What we know:
Blueprint (H helix, E strand, L loop, with lengths): L1 E12 L2 E12 L3 E5 L6 H8 L7 E6 L12 E4 L11 H11 L4 H14 L15 H13 L5 E5 L7 H16 L3 E5 L3 H7 L2 E6 L2 E7 H5 L6 E7 L11 E7 L2 E6 L5 H9 L3 E7 L4 H9 L5
Parallel strand pairs: 3-7, 3-8, 5-6, 6-7
Antiparallel strand pairs: 1-2, 1-4, 8-9, 10-12, 10-13, 11-12
Amino acid sequence: MDALVVENVVKSFGAARAVDGLSFSVPRGSICGFLGPNGAGKTTTIRMAMDIIRPDSGRLTLLDGLTPADARSGVGYMPEERGLYPKMRVGRVLSYIARIKGIKPREIEGRIRSWLDRVGLAECVGKKVEELSRGMQQKIQFIAAAIHDPDILILDEPFASLDPINADLLKDILLGFKSAGKTVLFSTHIMEQAEQLCDHIVLIHKGRNVLCGTLESIRGQFPADSVDVELEGDPGFLAALPQVKSVARVDGGLRITLREGADDQQLLAQMLDRVRIRRFELTVPSLHQIFILAVGEPHE
Length: 300
């Protein structure tokens, strides 16, 4: 069962095609990273999933086949452009949003207090939104998206204004949503956050699907091309071995980049004749490296 299905979706703005035959699905109960360079079509796709704009062709369905309009009550949305009312006090903003989301009046105050406590902003209930820092406002915006306990959270750049402590707090909250059987889809430029948090990845470029699947299956498409080693002895001979492209010092050891098609086990056998090996570990490509290989440019 899928929380979101995008089928051959096309969306143009004038002569510019923002989304170009895009197809992918997000399994229920997963945390999915929606990745791509600036201008790849991430925000346009998210807005179509939220029924803010409509596709020119193709279709999007949520929560096992519902249209975006019909699924709205089961979806929590945090836009890239934050939409809080700056002159209103935090408690009133959240109360207003909770009423719109259909939460019973007798439950609203308790939910607001619980969420503000959870994100460390209990003392801000009476402050105006404009008096808060950008990071604080971002946490209030997240509460607005999550306060009605949706089945799927769709978050556009949720980590953008958060310091490392609050990024970890949000990460824990999202993992809690997953543990409760909920689904999270979030766009991000922060590859490290996606790598730590996601079990499913969708990478798009120029409005098209480049990679889609579990993080493990995607990594399997990009074989490791380097080995991290720790050894006793003189490593000077390594650069001359036929399997070796380059050697660099990293973290108290060496990173050996292999030539295309090189056999790491042959390299190990040749090293054992010359030095004592304390660690020999084939490195797994990072999401950052996969992004560059797949898209052909660095992420921001």
